Amino acid sequence: MVMIISICSACLTYFLGLHLKKGPVLSSAIVTLSSGLLLPHFFIEGDTLALAATTASYAAMVSTIKFPKLIEMVAIGCICGIVFNLTQDVFVGVGGRLGSIAAIAGFSWFGLKQIIEKFMGKNKLTINLLQK
User: Fold this and answer.
1) Most C-beta atoms within 10 A of its C-beta, which of 9, 38, 80, 93?
2) pLDDT digit string (tens) for 63-119?
3) How many other C-beta atoms are found inside a 10 Å radius of the C-beta of residue 94?
4) For residues 104 and 15, what is the distance between their CA atoms, to the nearest angstrom?
5) Is residue 132 over pLDDT 60?
6) Beta strand ranges found along 53-127 (DSSP E)
7) Is 79 helix (H, G, I), strand (E, B) or coil?
């Protein structure tokens, strides 16, 4: 469930910021507030899901120059969900944990994208993987 919430939160934040022109900070705030208020009431593990949604919304506050397609948010949300699941018991109570996970997800996707572009060519990656 963390994976689904992470992907949806990243995509929603990116969509609000880019297509509805709300900006990355307000978009993340909307997703974070909504998930914090709603998810704990509808799911047993709602607190954890709200944290995952918050983390993914931080990850979606990226430059549209580096990440121009909404489909890239699916990858970033997926990486965010994986890292969040792997680090649930690490650094609990330490400030900056969610933002660090978000940064790791963004850097990981950017690095993976660079590797794919190097081996496949930038045009093939754009045409095959990241079209709208």
Assistant:
1) 80
2) 888 888 899 999 999 999 999 999 988 878 888 899 999 999 999 999 998 888 888
3) 8
4) 21
5) no
6) none
7) helix
